[in-house]
Design brief:
The structure is a homodimer of 460-residue chains.
Chain A lengths: L7 E6 L3 H12 L4 E4 L11 E4 L2 E4 L4 E2 L4 H10 L3 E3 L5 E5 L5 E4 L8 H18 L13 H5 L3 H8 L3 H15 L8 H11 L2 H5 L8 E3 L4 H11 L3 E2 L4 E6 L4 E5 L4 E9 L3 H4 L3 E3 L4 H7 L7 E8 L3 H4 L2 E7 L6 E4 L8 E8 H7 L4 H16 L8 E6 L18 H5 L10 E3 L12 H15 L11
Parallel strand pairs in A: 1-2, 1-13, 2-10, 7-16, 11-14, 13-20
Antiparallel strand pairs in A: 3-4, 5-9, 6-9, 7-8, 11-12, 12-13, 15-18, 15-19, 16-17, 17-18
């Protein structure tokens, strides 16, 4: 690369929330940006589809206290928020298929199990407080925590059978993986990055407290509108050449752009599939070999009305039997329709994916019907999304650190490589795995390239 | 893809030992083959360089009993084998830097430590016998074994501090990673795939028993010679389109070949970086997100003669202090020169890589000098190879399964995806991680496409 001409100041790769926010902020500072997206739509792990004239979220959708940047973004974009419906009682389905109603976040388990779970939760919170989310590989117990799986910790700490089952269910719901796949250190980091375990699991006061009017995808859609011609869809990036003077970003169709910087705002496994020339430093490359995505199928059943509410149910359920591990009332703010969302994660998601579309629908509606009664069996419409089959995401909710990855290679997660910067919820020390983490990471990448200035011009 | 013309019967991607053997066997059966290699030389994780008019192996180099296919290949290609030099005493360096001489495979540790290590080894062998190497995800204890790291097992099983240190050293030497990075199930699978733990660690009777005259790389070189124009170097493959009728394989420069089948014979992380259209099934893709390579720097010091032999030393050493964990006498068969090879693995390799080339040389020669005396400090020549920096290998010796990967997604390791077949040592149920595994996997892929026939024509 001998020519010094820059087509553009910054190329951003990936129009998920991180890339969109990054490009938006750079443009606000007068930086010339090109945002390249592999898919035919923006949003990344937030996706909206219209079902029966209601927009439903196939991906991330909840926000909650402490997620300041996403609330600020919603306000800036004129997207209203409203509380997730939580009135009424929740349901827990036991492994044997019995239903137990409960209020709040603590299901009716036996007293020994309840005590066991409460102790485990308190211990996780206590251990999480020792983790430095900016550098989880530091800290007196980092090697001990990162030398074991969450499964090992559960086996050692939780003494009742019911307690172990409930902890596994929590892992399925929070990380969309099996406890065997997850480093204890990553679980603790993730808890600390949100503040506490209850910040992850709760509706009121937690990460599921609020929803966005018209769907979380509205944020991505409105950002895309503002970017206008700075956004290019259907453009998978295949190669990034980089040197002291700039970067050359080449798309699958051979089109190339020369820029001063590139921000790669793709999920880690996808970021690792771009060809970098020269090759990435060993530590960065080796880290990208180690960060698989969780496994999740989200299903959305739409009914004429939220019939469970009249039966005194909140629509929130947990199931130890599965395959749906977790449901939430996701009806539109208007209440015009009733919408239940269900999450199938980890091994259950991998198993469900082996069935035909028709069989999956039957299995999933059976699961909902056991939880909410016969009315659940005949939705107006039913959609599902297997995030592991999306070619440019290949899993969700987020990348799961296996044992050893944080301590061996974690310092390569966020550090730029020359003029290549990294964004995406996985690079955020706060709210890793959430829309909030993505927003923060996009802002941080923009700030690293062009710090906020007083004047109107941020051009380099 | 509407055209049915096939440029070629089979494209093989990657000219490591697996790809070379696969292409060679297919050609022997009259199948028209094109072997594409990203690098400027064949051999993959076997690489030879001429140093002071001796060919030295920068990569894999040893073979041993039970590795029938590689011995047969050596015979077919006219490459002689000879025993690794093992006469004399071995050296163990303690963490504190003291040297202890020993014979055989058992260093002089304290009696409690020795007993502890012997018990751990016997247990690993016993547990390994329960693993089905064809389907490690089956078996009564698969989930238990795959739910924990090797670190967890060591912490729980080995009671002496010295014993734990020695088991960690064994992990460094065998898997080139930290015990925290490795599923216990993978360790057991790997042991069973070789036969026993001593088959992995031993010289006589084990995987380090013999060497190949002129270097292991000679096998690759001779196979490449036979392939003639069927081999194309400097051709990284970027995209594989596949349908019911065939495959289209596209290189980085845009050249494309239509074929009946493709065999991807690249290390798992590299196989995952090719763009597949349609995208790979979720299980296969998700598995490829989970199989990082080990970390190893191999160094080779050449001396006027094998001076350690006259001092009664074998040249084999283990060091708990490091950074070199393991050395072996790798002098040429002629004995004209003395050559010591050293392995720096796992965290030590990652740490060493942060130093300058000059500093690394100093550190590594200091390490050799502590083990073998002042003569080791002034080699005729000194070369090192950091396998993690090789853009088309990105680690060695082999892919390391973290917890959960075998049980959750292992069944996607070897299964073809339509007309896409997988080869490479990681796909072999016998001698995974060794040259033997690569040879077997190449033969198996060739057999899957074109079973052995009586007649001379294997053309489809």
């Amino acid at each position: 690369m001998s020519h010094q001409h820059h087509d553009i100041d910054v190329v951003v790769v990936g129009a998920g929330m991180a890339g969109l926010v990054c490009a938006h902020r750079l443009r606000q500072r007068g930086v010339e940006v090109l945002l390249l997206e592999a898919c035919q739509q923006v949003g990344g792990r937030t996706v909206g589809v219209e079902v029966d004239s209601e927009v439903v979220d196939l991906g991330g959708q909840f926000i909650g206290p402490g997620q300041d940047r996403v609330y600020a973004l919603a306000e800036e974009l004129g997207v209203a928020t409203f509380p997730t419906y939580t009135a009424g009682t929740n349901v827990l389905e036991t492994e044997a298929g019995r239903l137990r109603r409960f209020r709040g976040m603590v299901p009716k388990l036996g007293p020994f199990t309840l005590l066991d779970v409460a102790r485990a939760q308190a211990r996780l919170d206590r251990l999480a407080r020792t983790v430095d989310t900016g550098a989880p590989w530091r800290g007196p117990n980092a090697n001990t925590f990162d030398g074991q799986t969450l499964q090992t910790w559960i086996d050692r700490t939780v003494t009742t059978r019911g307690g172990r089952g409930f902890l596994a269910l929590a892992c399925h719901a929070i990380w969309a993986c099996e406890p065997s796949e997850l480093s204890l250190l990553h679980a603790l980091f993730y808890i600390k990055a949100a503040g506490s375990l209850s910040a992850l699991t709760d509706f009121e006061g937690g990460a599921q407290q609020d929803r966005l009017d018209g769907g979380a995808y509205g944020l991505a859609g409105k950002l895309a509108d503002r970017l206008e011609t700075s956004l290019r869809l259907n453009t998978p990036v295949r190669r990034i050449e980089h040197d002291d003077a700039g970067v050359t970003v080449t798309a699958e169709d051979g089109t190339a752009w020369r820029a001063g910087h590139v921000v790669v705002a793709a999920a880690p496994p996808l970021a690792g599939r771009i060809a970098y020339r020269p090759a990435l430093p060993a530590a960065r490359d080796n880290l990208l070999q180690r960060l698989p995505m969780g496994s999740v199928i989200k299903c959305i059943a739409t009914y004429p009305e939220p019939f469970w509410r009249t039966a005194g149910l909140s629509g929130a359920a947990l199931s130890l039997r599965g395959p749906i591990a977790l449901t939430v009332d996701s009806s539109p703010r208007s209440g015009r329709r009733g919408i239940l969302i269900g999450f199938v994660t980890g091994a259950a998601a991998r198993d469900l994916a082996t069935h035909s579309s028709a069989a999956r629908r039957t299995i999933l509606l059976d699961s909902l019907t056991r939880l909410f009664g016969p009315q659940a069996s005949t939705p107006l419409s039913f959609v599902e999304r297997n995030w592991n089959e999306q070619p440019f995401t290949r899993g969700a909710y987020s990348a799961v650190f296996p044992p050893g990855a944080w301590t061996q290679l974690g310092s390569a997660l966020r550090a730029p490589v020359g003029r290549i910067h990294w964004a995406g919820t996985e690079t955020s020390p706060r709210w890793y795995g959430y829309i909030e983490g993505a927003v923060r990471s996009g802002e941080a990448a923009a700030d690293a390239i062009t710090p906020a200035r007083r004047g109107p011009s941020g051009r380099e």
